[in-house]
Amino acid sequence: MTPETLFSDHDYRIVGLSSPNLSPLGLLEGEVSEAFNELVRRARQSGLELRCASGYRSLDRQAAIWNGKFQSIRPVEADDGTALQRNAFSARDWIYKILRFSALPGSSRHHWGTDCDIYDAAAVADDYKLQLTVTESRAQFGELHRWLDERIADDRSCGFFRPYAHDRGGVSIEPWHLSYAPLSSEFEWRLRPTVWRALCSDRSIEGMAEIDAELEFIFERFVRVAEDWCPERYRSGRSN
Ligand SMILES: [Zn+2]
Predict the structure, then answer these.
(1) What is the Å distance from ligand 1's center to 117 Cα?
(2) What is the dihedral of CA 119, 120, 125, 131, to 10 degrees?
(3) Ligand 1: distance of its center to the CA of 37 in Å?
(4) Domain locations in the chain?
(5) Straight-line distance from the first to the last Cα atom of the chain, in angstroms, rounded to the nearest whole number
(6) Which string of DSSP letters, residue by residue, matches 62-90?
(7) Most exposed residue of 111, 121, 191, 200, measured as fewest CB within 10 angstroms of its CB?
(8) Half-sphere exposure (CA, 13 Å, Cβ side) for 57?
(9) What confidence tens digit (pLDDT) does each residue in 87-134 have?
(10) Sheet holding 160-161, edge to edge
């Protein structure tokens, strides 16, 4: 028996190796898409045009982003937005610079079809180029985020909450990233370094030796989110 036979299709889905039952638009899994559409409908009543800019993402897609950053084909930035130079860092330190803004392939919440990056299309011109930065969330999309703040605070946000609302020293704050707690809380519970190693360590992911050496710490700091990111009632149904 190979180690992989110990894992189910569900495990493959958790690390982005098999896709969820995506809605016709292909951004979110069916149940999540229905909840999102309800949130869109409510937002529209307040004059907001809530849109999902990025939803489901496969492991291959996340690996392309990751490898591009590891090889400096894509920019890697410091917290203040300045571009970092690859040759100023060891491979290990470079990985941590990437992790601040990009998920390790196989550990992205976007693999699950439960998470999406959102914006308000009513607040910008059609040809506006989305930045997904904290500054932009407070400026152009301030009205949308204040509307979401109110609903998230008293659980009227159709099951969507922000896993990256606070900076815990790992992933930078991402107010635009919403996660559908009724489903994603189970995925996050099941995603463990053992699952990741078994299913992802033979994939084409740059920096694998350094990742493997640091994996437990990476999970602790960059994959796990605060326990209270969503109300307790959404976490109570998960199985061990
Ligand atoms: Zn996101």
Answers:
(1) 5
(2) -20
(3) 18
(4) 3-224
(5) 24
(6) HHHHHHHHHTTSS--B-TTSPBPPGGGS-
(7) 121
(8) 24
(9) 999 999 999 999 999 999 999 999 999 999 999 999 999 999 999 999
(10) 50-54, 115-120, 177-180, 160-161
